Amino acid sequence: MIQRIITAEEFANQKYDLPDGGRWSELIAGEPVILEQPSDGHGNVIRNLSRFLAQWIEDTQVGYACFELGIIVKRTPDTVISPAVSYFVAGQRWAETDKVVTDTKPALVIDVASTVDRRRNTPHRIAHYRGMGIPVAIVIDPMEQKIAVHTGKDQVDVLGREESLTSKNDWIDNPSDGPLLAGLSIPVRDIFEQPDWWQWASRPE
Question: What are the start-end ranges of the H helices in the chain?
Fold first, then answer.
């Protein structure tokens, strides 16, 4: 049976009927694709990023972050990619929070390359982000414990455990808004560690 090509809007309506409630699904050239379930290392990265970003956003009251939001990066046929984190500064605050998919451009995205399929498809994902005009794309690799920061057509900064993920002056979406996440600096090693509170929360009764 030949599967019918669907639109991003149809994908959004059907997503929760997919395996695992569609949590690890994306739409590639009109066809739903189920990604491998991520590792524990993926979960640690997300838990740590959530804490650091939440604190920075609370302190600065600038922008907001969405997690696993589907970004429509291409039309006809439609492609929807769900980065781990999408950070927005333009438009009404929190406007994208409850959406399943959006065609609004984030100012910054973060992918976690924690499985074979995510690692293999990283170049294609970066190309889609570039094509959409997203100025900063960060790829976090829990296996090698490295972070790649893509900020230009061929510009990539690779950070190891002993360095810090620090916002730079060239992290700019709209010049009038200034640098993205200005003043944010996270030790790379802290992004990969299992949080102390999670060790207790995940311990059997």
Answer: 8-14, 40-60, 116-120, 122-132, 188-192, 196-201
